[in-house]
């Protein structure tokens, strides 16, 4: 069982990733950090706690992190995730408290106490991680692994932008933070739009029907969450659950090891993640980028975990 710290901006698909983690015996969630991204940080932190509380989980600490990207104002995605950030799913406000320590200090404390044992899973903008790595430069080297949802690498025909024509939302939101994190020297597995925009990984209305009549609270909440998207667009992307799934069954994915440049600033190419050809690559560390996924086996895994009676 891997010990994981989640860092997220729930967000419909972040909430689905949290449900998947809670249902998966391969991972033990030590804490959930929250960051501004899909919605303001007060809302993403409340949403993490709303989901935990609904699942009857009261022993996983939730911390609140950065309220805005390092150099840019927050541009949230509530138009996409609903005005409550969770597709108007109807969960009550949380009663669980948020921890008083900041996400970066809490993360540093946990990771330093168990060197080499903890995997960090980041499914939002990378602001909290950048702040943690700047304050505690030894941290990247103390991680077992960093797994993140972010980027569009042009490795498949789906590897184009979603926030702009060229850039993926999490990296676009805070490219300066992404640049720090991708160059931190941590052992990084990045899962981007190359795989998560593959329609074989999307939920459709027949999956929604199965979830709706599912035997578990997790299935019924997942139905409420995905319904918001499926009603509007006919399908629901599972960016963040895919990222978590790479820790559950690594045979679902192919990865390539490459050097990546992140375009910072606020130009037309803000947030682009460019795979560098060897002749242009410098001292950047290699990172592992997902280049293929077995979509139907991933969906089977996701649904079977939602239908599983016990939490992990
Ligand atoms: C990413 O952006 C967010 O809206 C989703 O939660 C996901 O993490 C996809 O680009
Ligand atoms: Ca997210």
Structure, briefly:
The chain has 312 residues and is α/β, with parallel strands linked by helices. Helices cover 37% and strands 16% of the residues. It has 13 helices and 10 strands.
Provide structural commentary.
It is a single chain. By secondary structure, this protein is of the alpha/beta class. It has 13 helices and 10 strands. α1 packs antiparallel against α11, α4 packs across α5 and α5 packs across α8. The longest helix is centred in the last third of the chain and has 17 residues. It is globular, with a radius of gyration of 18 Å. The termini are close together. It binds beta-D-ribofuranose and calcium ion. Beta-D-ribofuranose (BDR) binds next to α1, α7 and α12. The site of beta-D-ribofuranose has 13 residues, from α1, α7 and α12.
